[in-house]
Amino acid sequence: MGNGIDTVEISRIEKLLSDLDEDRLLDFFSEDELADSGRGAARAQKLAARFAAKEACCKLFPKEICLGTIEPVDFSVAKDGYGKPTIVPSPKAQAVMDLHLVDDIEVSMTHTTANATAVANLVKRNISPPWYGKLIFNCFPARKKVILQNLNRVFGNSISEDEIALLAQDFYGHLVKFLKEFFLMPFLSSEKRKGLIRLEGGENLVEAQKQGRGVLLLTGHFGNWEVATVAGIAQFEEYHGLFHFIRRPLKPKWFNDFVMRRFRKAGFGTLEKSGSLDDILELLEANHIVVSIFDQFTIRKYGIPSEFFGHPASTSKSLAVLAQFTNAPVIPASSWREPDGTHVLKFEPPVEVVTEGRTRDIINVNTKRFNQVLERIILRHPEQWIWMHKRWKKVAEKRPKAGANS
User: What is the full DSSP assignment across 13-69?
Assistant: First the structure.
């Protein structure tokens, strides 16, 4: 899995162009590819070269092609400002690339009068854990077994054991930065806090709130979620008092009180994970924003089994239930730390939620979709997720009621 090559007969593309109208061509090429190919006699040659590039990219990921995870249309070819061809992956293809720790795919194309050929080469991600991440991994490995088990569960069939160890070391390094940022933030001036966070996709949140049904925010423990959330959203006075987090109390109590004081000061409300349904419904009716932290193990009473990175994981069903019965849009939100130490807080377009069918089926489908969104977010910056959490823990067996027949 290092390079792929493919050759396409130009006559095949000429036949495709003669048999299909422009709309049907979108099944094979992107709008930009069709526009870049022009309308002249060389159109078939240009599109043949692009199709060869798509096929060459697919050959880099044979397992995912066999499973139907991706297909040639998930890769498109664009030109940069210098005319160099670049690969633009679809969200599905980007997730596959991230799973293999691939930063980019370099492509070159050529053609004769009869054939077009393309070569695609992988550019692997450079994992460079800080020295203190390596030190903790080797000398003070808190929950090392759980971390490596989780990383192997997700990446075991895609990358080497050495790369998994490097990811674990990078994760420990992230934790050190996380704690340092968390305890130093109260001492930063408002100007420094403002310069620490960059907001992306704010228009997605604004448009969702315009619907007037409230907003359900789908998120997890990404990046430095405490710092990015408090310092990021607190900059916007118009949102003061509109965000409400569904979360369980932290331990020990003094730490929970410390975090809650910071949240209240930033204008955030908090809701208990159990017994808050009426409050949540009232907040959504008032067009507020309810934040669901969705990436943790859930006990049998509140969860359902749902696939997460290809493995069954007990997942909260409350978000799917709320989305179905309130029609509130579900907006994914995430944060991550950039190499320069600044943070990004990103709001993405709403998740397409299923609303028709049997209630149980709707909940299962939507819960799986929410997990898939989280998977793509985690894979973008895998070292900045909580791999120490036992996400795939077994659900306790349901005990029979006293006096029931065995």
Answer: HHHHHHHS-HHHHTTTS-HHHHHHT-SSTTHHHHHHHHHHHHHHHHTT-HHHHHHTS
